[in-house]
Amino acid sequence: MAAARRAVDAGLDGVELHSANGYLLHEFLAPDTNHRTDAYGGSPQARARLVVEVARAVAAEVGPGRVGIRISPAHGVQGIPEADADDVAATYGALVDGLAPLGLAYLSVLRADPTDELTQDLRRRSGMPLVANRGFSTPTTRESASALVDATDADAVAVGRALIANPDLVERWRAGADENEPDPSTFYGTTAEGYTDYPRLTA
Ligand SMILES: Cc1cc2nc3c(=O)[nH]c(=O)nc-3n(C[C@H](O)[C@H](O)[C@H](O)COP(=O)(O)O)c2cc1C
Fold first, then answer.
1. CA-138 nearest atom, ligand 1
2. DSSP element (H, E) containing 130
């Protein structure tokens, strides 16, 4: 909550709750990692409880319109396979049922095929705008982003690598201009390299 408040006070439009890709909130959702026997473990509803409580608390701090959430149901990265499709549907269904009354800004779904029935079910049940992303296999392009909006009826597409490499990606996509190639050797770096040194078109 304090981090969300500081982010908004610093001028950011909002914060995204990272409930995806094997990080802490995701670890509570998944039966692979959540072995608790208290009110935060066991049933799908219980495993979703912490994520809903965090979302409610952060929304109360900075306003629900400034809070999005990212999930990656059964995407299988960082040690969380979520192999039981029925459990995945029940868990993420319970999650979005809990999130629906909060009026958050968006639901960001990372999934190899976000056109599938689960994603559409989550979208309907959550009542939230959908942000779609296909994960790491093929980098999002201008064309694939557009196709994904058409295929999923998404409200937006999350873009990773192309945006990292192009600080002016929106202008480039608008103009159909050439793009800088992302350099994976600088991903997740601890210096400014790879974060601030990709050139702009007009540089
Ligand atoms: C360097 C790097 C850092 C990333 N960090 C995050 C992150 O903090 N949270 C997250 O949900 N996804 C993160 N991602 C994943 C992207 O949001 C996105 O899902 C992925 O790159 C696939 O989209 P793309 O094809 O547009 O790159 C990261 C990706 C890269 C390349």
1. 25
2. strand 130-133
CATH of the domain at 6: 3.20.20.70
Asked if residue 77 belongs to a domain, the reply is yes
Active site residues: 23
- Cβ(22) – ligand 1 distance below 6 Å: no
159 lines ligand 1 (CB under 6 A): yes
186 lines ligand 1 (CB under 6 A): no
Contact between 47 and 92 (Cβ < 8 Å)? no
Query: Mind listing the pLDDT tens digit for each residue in 131-183?
Result: 999 999 999 999 999 999 999 989 999 999 999 999 999 999 999 999 999 99
- Which residue stretches of the chain have pLDDT < 70? 203
Residue 92 is encoded by which pair of tokens?
A: 């993420």
Structure tokens at 193: 């390299």
With respect to residue 90, please indicate whether it lies within any of the assigned structural domains.
yes
Q: Phi first, then psi: what are they for 88, rounded to 5°? A: -60, -45
pTM: 0.96
**DSSP 3-state assignment of 15?**
strand
Q: How far is the CA of 161 from the centre of ligand 1 (A)?
A: 7
Q: Is residue 169 part of a domain?
A: no
State the total domains in the chain.
1
Alpha carbon of 37 to ligand 1 centroid (Å)? 32
